[in-house]
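Regression test case RT-17, inverse folding.

Input:
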Protein backbone atom coordinates (compact mmCIF):
# COMPACT_ATOMS: atom_id res chain seq x y z
CA UNK A 1 0.00 0.00 0.00
CA UNK A 2 2.89 2.36 0.77
CA UNK A 3 6.17 2.82 -1.13
CA UNK A 4 9.47 4.56 -0.39
CA UNK A 5 8.13 7.85 -1.69
CA UNK A 6 5.19 7.70 0.69
CA UNK A 7 7.56 7.18 3.60
CA UNK A 8 9.74 10.07 2.53
CA UNK A 9 6.84 12.49 2.32
CA UNK A 10 5.09 11.42 5.51
CA UNK A 11 8.43 11.97 7.30
CA UNK A 12 8.39 15.52 5.98
CA UNK A 13 4.88 15.96 7.32
CA UNK A 14 5.97 14.58 10.70
CA UNK A 15 8.87 17.05 10.78
CA UNK A 16 6.39 19.88 10.19
CA UNK A 17 4.15 18.57 12.97
CA UNK A 18 7.16 18.62 15.25
CA UNK A 19 7.59 22.33 14.48
CA UNK A 20 4.11 22.87 15.91
CA UNK A 21 5.16 21.49 19.30
CA UNK A 22 4.51 24.22 21.82
CA UNK A 23 2.46 26.24 19.33
CA UNK A 24 -0.65 24.15 18.65
CA UNK A 25 -1.99 23.42 22.15
CA UNK A 26 -4.81 23.00 23.09
CA UNK A 27 -5.15 21.56 19.58
CA UNK A 28 -2.97 18.65 18.40
CA UNK A 29 0.28 19.24 16.53
CA UNK A 30 -0.30 18.35 12.88
CA UNK A 31 1.83 18.56 9.75
CA UNK A 32 0.87 18.27 6.07
CA UNK A 33 2.64 18.28 2.72
CA UNK A 34 1.03 18.41 -0.72
CA UNK A 35 2.93 16.49 -3.41
CA UNK A 36 2.56 16.67 -7.20
CA UNK A 37 4.73 14.53 -9.52
CA UNK A 38 7.16 13.70 -6.73
CA UNK A 39 7.66 17.33 -5.71
CA UNK A 40 6.44 19.06 -2.55
CA UNK A 41 4.26 21.98 -3.62
CA UNK A 42 2.66 22.86 -0.30
CA UNK A 43 3.63 22.68 3.37
CA UNK A 44 1.69 23.41 6.52
CA UNK A 45 1.61 22.89 10.25
CA UNK A 46 -0.92 23.99 12.82
CA UNK A 47 -0.40 26.94 15.13
CA UNK A 48 -3.39 27.63 17.35
CA UNK A 49 -3.10 31.42 17.12
CA UNK A 50 -3.13 31.36 13.31
CA UNK A 51 -6.41 29.39 13.11
CA UNK A 52 -5.68 27.63 9.79
CA UNK A 53 -5.05 23.91 10.20
CA UNK A 54 -2.03 22.23 8.61
CA UNK A 55 -3.98 21.06 5.56
CA UNK A 56 -5.34 24.51 4.82
CA UNK A 57 -1.92 26.15 5.09
CA UNK A 58 -0.45 23.54 2.74
CA UNK A 59 -3.32 23.98 0.26
CA UNK A 60 -2.88 27.75 0.25
CA UNK A 61 0.80 27.37 -0.60
CA UNK A 62 0.08 24.82 -3.33
CA UNK A 63 -2.79 26.92 -4.74
CA UNK A 64 -4.31 25.61 -8.00
CA UNK A 65 -1.53 23.02 -8.34
CA UNK A 66 -3.34 20.96 -5.67
CA UNK A 67 -5.67 19.35 -8.23
CA UNK A 68 -4.90 15.64 -8.59
CA UNK A 69 -2.07 15.94 -6.04
CA UNK A 70 -1.46 13.76 -2.98
CA UNK A 71 -1.76 15.12 0.56
CA UNK A 72 0.33 13.58 3.32
CA UNK A 73 -1.03 14.45 6.76
CA UNK A 74 0.03 13.23 10.20
CA UNK A 75 -3.51 13.20 11.62
CA UNK A 76 -6.88 12.49 10.04
CA UNK A 77 -8.38 15.67 8.51
CA UNK A 78 -11.19 17.01 10.67
CA UNK A 79 -14.79 16.57 9.52
CA UNK A 80 -16.59 18.89 11.94
CA UNK A 81 -17.10 22.63 12.23
CA UNK A 82 -14.95 24.01 15.04
CA UNK A 83 -13.02 27.27 15.08
CA UNK A 84 -12.52 26.63 11.35
CA UNK A 85 -14.46 24.74 8.63
CA UNK A 86 -13.74 21.00 8.13
CA UNK A 87 -10.36 20.30 6.54
CA UNK A 88 -11.78 17.24 4.78
CA UNK A 89 -14.06 19.54 2.80
CA UNK A 90 -11.17 21.81 1.85
CA UNK A 91 -9.20 18.86 0.49
CA UNK A 92 -12.22 17.74 -1.54
CA UNK A 93 -12.78 21.24 -2.94
CA UNK A 94 -9.10 21.51 -3.90
CA UNK A 95 -9.35 18.37 -6.07
CA UNK A 96 -6.86 16.28 -4.10
CA UNK A 97 -6.62 12.80 -5.65
CA UNK A 98 -5.11 10.84 -2.74
CA UNK A 99 -4.65 11.40 0.99
CA UNK A 100 -2.12 9.49 3.10
CA UNK A 101 -3.01 9.68 6.81
CA UNK A 102 -0.56 8.61 9.49
CA UNK A 103 -3.12 8.23 12.27
CA UNK A 104 -6.87 8.36 12.88
CA UNK A 105 -7.95 11.29 15.08
CA UNK A 106 -8.75 10.10 18.64
CA UNK A 107 -11.23 12.97 19.00
CA UNK A 108 -14.72 11.35 19.12
CA UNK A 109 -16.01 14.23 16.99
CA UNK A 110 -13.79 13.04 14.14
CA UNK A 111 -12.45 9.49 14.69
CA UNK A 112 -12.83 8.03 11.19
CA UNK A 113 -15.45 10.44 9.91
CA UNK A 114 -12.90 12.57 8.09
CA UNK A 115 -11.56 9.54 6.23
CA UNK A 116 -15.07 8.37 5.34
CA UNK A 117 -16.01 11.82 4.04
CA UNK A 118 -12.95 11.87 1.78
CA UNK A 119 -13.66 8.39 0.47
CA UNK A 120 -17.29 9.22 -0.14
CA UNK A 121 -16.03 12.01 -2.41
CA UNK A 122 -14.01 9.47 -4.44
CA UNK A 123 -10.62 10.27 -2.93
CA UNK A 124 -8.21 7.40 -2.28
CA UNK A 125 -7.29 7.40 1.41
CA UNK A 126 -4.54 5.22 2.86
CA UNK A 127 -4.16 5.12 6.64
CA UNK A 128 -1.50 3.93 9.06
CA UNK A 129 1.88 4.96 7.62
CA UNK A 130 4.26 5.73 10.53
CA UNK A 131 1.32 5.61 12.90
CA UNK A 132 3.55 5.16 15.96
CA UNK A 133 5.59 8.29 15.21
CA UNK A 134 2.42 10.30 14.62
CA UNK A 135 0.99 9.01 17.89
CA UNK A 136 3.99 10.28 19.84
CA UNK A 137 3.39 13.81 18.55
CA UNK A 138 -0.29 13.89 19.61
CA UNK A 139 0.20 11.78 22.77
CA UNK A 140 -0.92 14.52 25.24
CA UNK A 141 -3.86 15.62 23.07
CA UNK A 142 -5.08 12.04 22.68
CA UNK A 143 -5.05 11.49 26.43
CA UNK A 144 -6.89 14.70 27.26
CA UNK A 145 -9.52 14.32 24.49
CA UNK A 146 -10.38 10.73 25.48
CA UNK A 147 -10.07 10.84 29.28
CA UNK A 148 -10.63 14.48 30.21
CA UNK A 149 -7.34 14.66 32.12
CA UNK A 150 -3.77 15.44 31.01
CA UNK A 151 -1.12 12.97 30.02
CA UNK A 152 1.08 12.70 33.12
CA UNK A 153 4.79 12.58 32.28
CA UNK A 154 7.18 12.18 35.22
CA UNK A 155 10.87 13.05 35.02
CA UNK A 156 13.67 12.40 37.49
CA UNK A 157 17.41 13.03 37.21
CA UNK A 158 19.25 10.52 39.35
CA UNK A 159 22.51 8.67 40.01
CA UNK A 160 23.22 5.08 39.05
CA UNK A 161 22.07 4.02 42.50
CA UNK A 162 18.75 5.87 42.18
CA UNK A 163 19.51 8.97 44.27
CA UNK A 164 18.47 12.53 43.43
CA UNK A 165 20.48 14.30 46.10
CA UNK A 166 22.95 13.85 48.93
CA UNK A 167 21.98 13.96 52.57
CA UNK A 168 23.73 17.34 52.84
CA UNK A 169 21.63 18.71 49.97
CA UNK A 170 24.44 20.98 48.75
CA UNK A 171 24.62 20.22 45.02
CA UNK A 172 21.69 21.12 42.79
CA UNK A 173 22.48 19.25 39.58
CA UNK A 174 23.19 15.55 39.09
CA UNK A 175 22.73 15.28 35.32
CA UNK A 176 24.71 16.99 32.56
CA UNK A 177 23.94 20.26 30.70
CA UNK A 178 22.85 18.16 27.71
CA UNK A 179 20.30 16.33 29.81
CA UNK A 180 19.05 19.56 31.32
CA UNK A 181 18.52 20.72 27.73
CA UNK A 182 16.46 17.59 27.15
CA UNK A 183 14.40 18.57 30.18
CA UNK A 184 13.61 21.88 28.47
CA UNK A 185 12.42 19.91 25.44
CA UNK A 186 10.02 18.06 27.75
CA UNK A 187 8.77 21.37 29.10
CA UNK A 188 8.17 22.58 25.54
CA UNK A 189 5.84 19.62 24.95
CA UNK A 190 3.94 20.18 28.21
CA UNK A 191 1.30 22.74 29.14
CA UNK A 192 2.09 22.61 32.86
CA UNK A 193 4.96 21.59 35.14
CA UNK A 194 4.33 20.33 38.68
CA UNK A 195 6.45 20.04 41.81
CA UNK A 196 5.78 19.67 45.51
CA UNK A 197 6.39 22.48 47.97
CA UNK A 198 9.40 20.57 49.28
CA UNK A 199 11.18 21.16 45.97
CA UNK A 200 10.35 24.86 46.17
CA UNK A 201 11.71 25.11 49.72
CA UNK A 202 14.92 23.22 48.96
CA UNK A 203 15.77 24.36 45.40
CA UNK A 204 13.76 27.58 44.91
CA UNK A 205 13.28 26.87 41.16
CA UNK A 206 11.75 29.26 38.63
CA UNK A 207 10.09 26.39 36.71
CA UNK A 208 10.18 28.37 33.47
CA UNK A 209 10.70 27.20 29.90
CA UNK A 210 14.19 28.23 28.75
CA UNK A 211 14.51 26.38 25.46
CA UNK A 212 15.18 27.94 22.06
CA UNK A 213 12.07 26.74 20.23
CA UNK A 214 9.13 29.13 20.59
CA UNK A 215 6.04 28.26 22.60
CA UNK A 216 2.66 29.99 22.52
CA UNK A 217 0.87 29.14 25.77
CA UNK A 218 2.68 30.10 28.96
CA UNK A 219 3.92 27.12 30.96
CA UNK A 220 1.63 26.84 33.98
CA UNK A 221 3.60 26.23 37.21
CA UNK A 222 1.66 23.90 39.53
CA UNK A 223 2.66 23.53 43.18
CA UNK A 224 1.30 20.92 45.60
CA UNK A 225 1.29 22.63 49.00
CA UNK A 226 -1.32 21.23 51.36
CA UNK A 227 -0.48 23.60 54.24
CA UNK A 228 0.56 26.63 52.14
CA UNK A 229 4.18 26.66 53.29
CA UNK A 230 5.16 28.37 50.04
CA UNK A 231 7.24 31.51 50.73
CA UNK A 232 6.06 34.74 49.14
CA UNK A 233 9.70 35.41 48.23
CA UNK A 234 9.97 32.32 45.98
CA UNK A 235 11.80 32.95 42.70
CA UNK A 236 8.95 31.61 40.60
CA UNK A 237 6.88 34.68 41.58
CA UNK A 238 9.53 36.95 40.07
CA UNK A 239 10.61 34.93 37.02
CA UNK A 240 10.79 36.08 33.42
CA UNK A 241 8.79 35.40 31.34
CA UNK A 242 5.81 35.74 33.63
CA UNK A 243 3.73 32.55 33.77
CA UNK A 244 0.75 31.44 35.87
CA UNK A 245 1.32 29.91 39.30
CA UNK A 246 -1.38 27.51 40.49
CA UNK A 247 -1.14 26.24 44.07
CA UNK A 248 -3.25 23.32 45.29
CA UNK A 249 -3.78 23.18 49.04
CA UNK A 250 -6.05 21.46 51.54
CA UNK A 251 -9.30 22.97 52.81
CA UNK A 252 -7.62 23.47 56.20
CA UNK A 253 -4.84 25.74 54.87
CA UNK A 254 -4.59 29.09 56.66
CA UNK A 255 -6.60 31.87 55.06
CA UNK A 256 -3.95 34.44 56.00
CA UNK A 257 -1.38 32.60 53.89
CA UNK A 258 -3.78 32.46 50.95
CA UNK A 259 -4.03 36.23 50.80
CA UNK A 260 -0.27 36.68 50.99
CA UNK A 261 0.38 34.29 48.11
CA UNK A 262 -2.47 35.65 46.01
CA UNK A 263 -0.93 39.11 46.29
CA UNK A 264 2.16 37.62 44.63
CA UNK A 265 0.00 36.52 41.67
CA UNK A 266 -0.71 32.92 42.64
CA UNK A 267 -4.08 31.28 42.17
CA UNK A 268 -4.98 29.11 45.17
CA UNK A 269 -7.28 26.11 44.87
CA UNK A 270 -8.40 24.11 47.90
CA UNK A 271 -9.11 20.45 47.19
CA UNK A 272 -9.89 17.35 49.28
CA UNK A 273 -7.00 15.85 51.20
CA UNK A 274 -6.32 13.03 53.63
CA UNK A 275 -3.48 12.90 56.17
CA UNK A 276 -1.79 15.85 54.47
CA UNK A 277 -1.99 14.09 51.08
CA UNK A 278 -3.82 16.02 48.39
CA UNK A 279 -6.28 14.24 46.12
CA UNK A 280 -4.19 14.04 42.93
CA UNK A 281 -7.16 12.86 40.88
CA UNK A 282 -8.87 16.14 41.76
CA UNK A 283 -5.73 18.00 40.65
CA UNK A 284 -5.76 16.26 37.28
CA UNK A 285 -9.48 16.83 36.80
CA UNK A 286 -9.02 20.56 37.43
CA UNK A 287 -6.09 20.78 35.03
CA UNK A 288 -8.06 18.90 32.40
CA UNK A 289 -10.91 21.41 32.71
CA UNK A 290 -8.39 24.16 32.04
CA UNK A 291 -7.32 22.60 28.75
CA UNK A 292 -3.98 21.27 29.98
CA UNK A 293 -2.98 18.48 27.57
CA UNK A 294 0.33 17.41 29.08
CA UNK A 295 1.53 17.67 32.69
CA UNK A 296 5.24 17.29 33.44
CA UNK A 297 5.84 16.09 37.02
CA UNK A 298 9.37 17.02 38.12
CA UNK A 299 9.29 15.92 41.75
CA UNK A 300 10.38 15.73 44.36
CA UNK A 301 10.80 12.30 45.80
CA UNK A 302 7.50 12.21 47.73
CA UNK A 303 5.53 13.61 44.79
CA UNK A 304 6.87 10.90 42.48
CA UNK A 305 5.73 8.29 45.01
CA UNK A 306 2.27 9.87 45.27
CA UNK A 307 1.70 9.80 41.52
CA UNK A 308 3.11 6.29 41.11
CA UNK A 309 1.25 4.78 44.04
CA UNK A 310 -1.94 6.43 42.75
CA UNK A 311 -1.37 4.79 39.32
CA UNK A 312 -1.53 8.22 37.70
CA UNK A 313 1.73 8.24 35.72
CA UNK A 314 1.48 7.62 31.97
CA UNK A 315 5.16 7.96 31.06
CA UNK A 316 8.29 8.18 33.20
CA UNK A 317 11.69 9.49 32.09
CA UNK A 318 14.61 8.25 34.16
CA UNK A 319 17.63 10.49 33.46
CA UNK A 320 20.61 8.54 34.81
CA UNK A 321 23.99 10.15 35.44
CA UNK A 322 27.08 7.86 35.56
CA UNK A 323 27.88 8.42 39.23
CA UNK A 324 27.07 6.89 42.61
CA UNK A 325 26.03 8.92 45.64
CA UNK A 326 25.55 6.15 48.19
CA UNK A 327 24.58 6.71 51.79
CA UNK A 328 21.42 5.57 53.51
CA UNK A 329 20.37 9.18 54.04
CA UNK A 330 20.72 10.26 50.41
CA UNK A 331 17.44 11.26 48.77
CA UNK A 332 15.85 8.46 46.69
CA UNK A 333 14.33 9.15 43.28
CA UNK A 334 11.01 7.82 44.55
CA UNK A 335 10.29 8.23 48.26
CA UNK A 336 7.14 7.62 50.24
CA UNK A 337 6.39 4.49 52.20
CA UNK A 338 7.29 2.17 49.34
CA UNK A 339 5.70 -1.14 48.43
CA UNK A 340 5.54 -3.92 51.02
CA UNK A 341 5.95 -6.70 48.47
CA UNK A 342 7.46 -6.77 44.99
CA UNK A 343 4.23 -8.06 43.48
CA UNK A 344 2.52 -4.76 44.34
CA UNK A 345 5.04 -2.57 42.52
CA UNK A 346 4.17 -1.24 39.05
CA UNK A 347 5.77 -2.86 36.03
CA UNK A 348 7.36 -0.69 33.33
CA UNK A 349 8.37 -1.24 29.75
CA UNK A 350 11.18 0.71 28.16
CA UNK A 351 10.04 2.20 24.87
CA UNK A 352 13.44 3.65 24.02
CA UNK A 353 16.79 4.50 25.57
CA UNK A 354 19.48 6.90 24.40
CA UNK A 355 22.52 8.87 25.52
CA UNK A 356 22.23 12.53 26.47
CA UNK A 357 25.81 13.70 26.86
CA UNK A 358 27.32 11.26 29.37
CA UNK A 359 23.89 10.36 30.79
CA UNK A 360 21.41 7.68 29.78
CA UNK A 361 17.73 8.46 29.29
CA UNK A 362 15.13 5.72 29.73
CA UNK A 363 11.67 6.46 28.33
CA UNK A 364 9.38 4.08 30.19
CA UNK A 365 5.66 3.33 30.48
CA UNK A 366 3.86 1.68 33.41
CA UNK A 367 1.38 -1.08 32.61
CA UNK A 368 -1.59 1.18 33.43
CA UNK A 369 -0.49 4.04 31.14
CA UNK A 370 -3.27 5.82 29.21
CA UNK A 371 -0.92 6.72 26.37
CA UNK A 372 -1.94 5.73 22.84
CA UNK A 373 1.64 4.61 22.15
CA UNK A 374 2.26 2.67 25.34
CA UNK A 375 4.37 -0.42 24.52
CA UNK A 376 1.91 -2.39 26.66
CA UNK A 377 -0.61 -1.89 23.85
CA UNK A 378 1.68 -3.29 21.16
CA UNK A 379 0.03 -6.70 21.10
CA UNK A 380 -3.45 -5.22 20.98
CA UNK A 381 -5.38 -3.88 18.03
CA UNK A 382 -5.43 -0.14 17.26
CA UNK A 383 -8.05 2.30 18.52
CA UNK A 384 -11.64 1.61 17.57
CA UNK A 385 -12.26 2.32 13.92
CA UNK A 386 -8.56 2.42 13.00
CA UNK A 387 -7.94 -1.06 11.63
CA UNK A 388 -10.93 -1.14 9.31
CA UNK A 389 -9.90 2.20 7.84
CA UNK A 390 -6.39 1.11 6.81
CA UNK A 391 -7.34 -0.01 3.32
CA UNK A 392 -8.86 2.29 0.75
CA UNK A 393 -10.89 1.65 -2.40
CA UNK A 394 -9.42 3.13 -5.54
CA UNK A 395 -10.81 6.40 -6.78
CA UNK A 396 -13.80 5.88 -8.97
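Golden output:
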Amino acid sequence: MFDAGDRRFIKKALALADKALGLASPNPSVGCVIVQDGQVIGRGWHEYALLDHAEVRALKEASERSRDATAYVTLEPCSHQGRTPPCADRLIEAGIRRVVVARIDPNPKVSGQGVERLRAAGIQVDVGLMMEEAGKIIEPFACRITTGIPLVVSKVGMSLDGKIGTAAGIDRWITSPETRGFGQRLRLGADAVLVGVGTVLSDDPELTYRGRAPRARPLVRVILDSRLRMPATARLFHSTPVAPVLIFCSNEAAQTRRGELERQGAEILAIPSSADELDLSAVLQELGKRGILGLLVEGGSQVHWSFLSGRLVDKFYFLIAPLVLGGKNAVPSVGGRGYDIIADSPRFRIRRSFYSGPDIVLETYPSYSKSIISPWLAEKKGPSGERNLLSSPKRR
